[in-house]
Task: inverse folding
């Protein structure tokens, strides 16, 4: 039996460290990292007072984090003061980086994010991945990952892991794409097909989009639904700051919630699913437009120009979204619904009917619906940041890999 592959933590904090001395040390290393990252330049004494440990204990932890390249010392702080000056600490701008990748229906994208959360390198290829075999797509993605990692390495960074966002259902092993209907992929093991020498995680793009909202936008509550679209419609449920994954990892398939049980047949085997009314192709069809390149941009442009047929199609899509979301909102009572991905760009024309439908159908005050500031960038950033979070939440993994 072979050991399972080493994983990053796609859902933020991993399994809590056991209550041993070693587990406590790992948790304290994480507390130091998070404190310095949240507050910026801090002395060891300041870190000690923030987390309630002795200065000596914090110094030992900091020494380790500096040795591993996770923290850097910026030199003496307050040089004019009497006594031994404390050295200000900061999260390193070199060292480990999170590599995020996205496999879209029309594009591949890869980026490297450093521990401070800055994107340091990025590459995008516009390709038609639809119905292409997984092999060539993943070969191209591997080349793109190598390009981004090469660029990051020239800046003193090294890849701590790769997280890949895909538009489909991912098994709980976080490596196998069980079904990606819009790519026409079934049971594809990315662990075997992506030739990269780093820990690998694969996740649903809507989930990574939701994590990006949670981690990168201070306004995001800890209980929310994130709804996003490319060709399909996906959703992610975040409860108390954590993703709800479901027994098989398939939670959030809002696109296949029935809006009209006797509606048109859907590829999933059901009828009248949300995707049949609010998916890109349905909206294009209702608008009298041909599916082609830049479909969302085309819809947004036409709607902005006042095209009545496009506006009416988007109003109907908003109504369908409102009906499908009613079930989720009534069941889960989230603090808000966030529209991301392509839906963010179309929000001005979707929101009025969506909000009206939700208000009419939900018990109690209507759940607020907001628009993601990250838009289509969410899944890629969420993927890269999931690797960064893995390092911040358990910095000792870096020592095990270096
Ligand atoms: Zn369906």
Result:
């Amino acid at each position: 039996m072979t050991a399972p592959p080493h994983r990053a933590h796609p859902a933020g904090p991993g399994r809590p460290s056991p209550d041993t001395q070693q587990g406590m040390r790992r948790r304290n290393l994480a507390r130091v990292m998070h404190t310095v990252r949240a507050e910026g330049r801090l002395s060891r004494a300041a870190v000690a007072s923030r987390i309630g440990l002795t200065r000596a204990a914090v110094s030992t932890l900091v020494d380790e984090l500096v040795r591993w390249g996770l923290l850097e010392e910026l030199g003496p702080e307050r040089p004019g003061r009497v006594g031994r000056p404390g050295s200000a600490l900061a999260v390193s701008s070199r060292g480990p980086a999170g590599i995020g990748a996205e496999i879209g229906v029309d594009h591949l994208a890869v980026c490297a994010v450093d521990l401070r959360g800055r994107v340091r390198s990025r590459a995008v290829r516009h390709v038609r991945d639809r119905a292409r075999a997984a092999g060539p797509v993943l070969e191209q993605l591997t080349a793109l990952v190598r390009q981004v990692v090469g660029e990051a390495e020239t800046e003193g960074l090294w890849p701590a892991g790769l997280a890949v966002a895909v538009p489909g259902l991912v098994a709980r092993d976080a490596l196998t794409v069980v079904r990606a209907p819009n790519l026409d992929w079934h049971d594809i093991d990315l662990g075997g097909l992506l030739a990269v020498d780093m820990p690998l995680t694969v996740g649903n793009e809507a989930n990574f989009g939701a994590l990006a909202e949670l981690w990168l936008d201070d306004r995001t509550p800890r209980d929310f639904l994130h709804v996003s679209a490319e060709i399909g419609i996906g959703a992610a449920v975040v409860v108390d700051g954590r993703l709800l994954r479901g027994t098989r990892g398939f939670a959030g398939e809002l696109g296949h919630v029935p809006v009209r049980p006797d509606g048109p047949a859907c590829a999933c085997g059901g009828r009248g699913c949300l995707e049949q009314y609010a998916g890109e192709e349905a909206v294009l069809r209702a608008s009298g437009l041909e599916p082609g390149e830049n479909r969302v941009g085309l819809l947004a442009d036409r709607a902005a120009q006042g095209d009545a047929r496009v506006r009416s199609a988007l109003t109907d899509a908003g109504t369908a979204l409102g009906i499908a979301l009613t079930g989720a909102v009534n069941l889960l009572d989230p603090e808000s619904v966030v529209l991301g991905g392509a839906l963010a760009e179309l929000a001005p024309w979707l929101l009025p009917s969506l909000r009206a439908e939700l208000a009419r159908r939900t018990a109690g005050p209507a759940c607020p619906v907001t628009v993601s500031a990250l838009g289509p960038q969410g899944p890629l950033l969420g993927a890269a940041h999931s690797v960064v979070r893995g390092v911040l939440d358990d910095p000792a993994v870096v020592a095990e890999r270096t």
